[in-house]
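#help-structures

NK: newbie question. if I give both the sequence and a SMILES, will the prediction place the ligand too? trying with zinc ion
OV: yes, paste both and it writes out the complex. here, I ran yours:
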Amino acid sequence: MTEKTTIEETYSRAGNTSNLAVEADRRGAGDVLIAAGMVGLNPSKSLGMSLMRLHSEFDSAARLREGATAIDIALLAARLRKLPGVVGLVTERAAVWGMEQPKDKALAVVLWWLDKRCKRCTGRLYERIPGSPGLSNIRCRSCNGTGEAHLPHGSDGRRLVNYIEASLHAGRDGLKRRLQAFEV
Ligand SMILES: [Zn+2]
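OV: that's the protein plus ligand as structure tokens.
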């Protein structure tokens, strides 16, 4: 299944109108997101903007903290100004979808999204050689050589990540169009 299909399916499911599903077949994901926004189904454009700001806050803070542990990352994330708003919006969506413990899931997924790197190998894919800065040829035992941390909360986690990615897409799209309007 492609990422595009996943996003379109997410929005098809989110839509109450059959019209949106038809649009999803005929047009690209970006068009569908715009259409979804126009019919009032998608509050995610502002979420997308918040996600972009949150990620840049996180990146600038994280740069100071190379080699940070998962707990360090969580503590650091707790100081990010955009985090409560983003988690709030994702929690609302999780609740709408009838997920249990929506806030716990929203927080865990947003933190995962902020720093997807495997905490054991920090995205380097291979195990370290003990007592040396070099890497062995053994795949990381935690991520099995994908370099990515395990996404929490199974299919609920996957669904929320899809929502985050779709919102980001919508936010980027909105930003791009605003910038284009500015240039004219
Ligand atoms: Zn790893």
